[in-house]
Amino acid sequence: MKTWILTAVLLVGFNVFAQHGGRGDRQRLTAEQRTELQVKKLTLELDLNDSQKANVQKLFLDKNKKVETAMAEHKQNREAGQKLTDDQKFEMKSKMLDEEITTKAEMKKILTKDQYEKWEKMRAEKKNKFEKRSKKYQKGNKR
Question: Which superkingdom (predicted)?
Fold first, then answer.
């Protein structure tokens, strides 16, 4: 399950918004809300024009809806006590990587060269930060 969460976050590839202590009864943001926040943050960081904002909005909304659907399906399987087979895990990871490749290609078309380089740098920093947090969590909670 930890692997699935990690790959889902990499698929989304962007921000984790509004970190709250604990996981209690916290409401999850909808795909549309996450998309709006992601686009606003990118607009501030990359100085996107209106055309770029519209294209990024469409791309992220599609991606966030796919992630939401996959997470709901995974949750149903987990609640039913079903575990993924090795082939299913491979297929899921392959699909996520394909989505990431597609996203990068689309972003390369939408952004200028400088904006794309800055976006790649931001993604790498977020990935490193997530991996450090993930390792810290795993060290303290060995099973």
Answer: Bacteria
In tens, the pLDDT along 31-88 reads 899 999 999 999 999 999 999 999 999 999 999 999 889 888 888 888 888 888 889 8
| 119-128 long-range contacts, CB within 8 A, separation 24+ | 119/42, 119/46, 122/45, 123/13, 123/14, 126/13, 126/14, 126/15, 127/10, 127/13
91-114 pLDDT, tens digit per residue, is 989 999 999 999 999 999 999 999
C-alpha–C-alpha distance, residues 71 and 8, integer Å: 8
Exposed, middle or buried by CB within 10 Å (0-12, 13-18, 19+), for 82? Answer: exposed
Q: Which residues contact 84 (CB under 8 A, 6 or more apart)?
A: 4, 77, 92
Model-level pTM?
Answer: 0.69
Residue pointed to by tokens 């060290």: 139
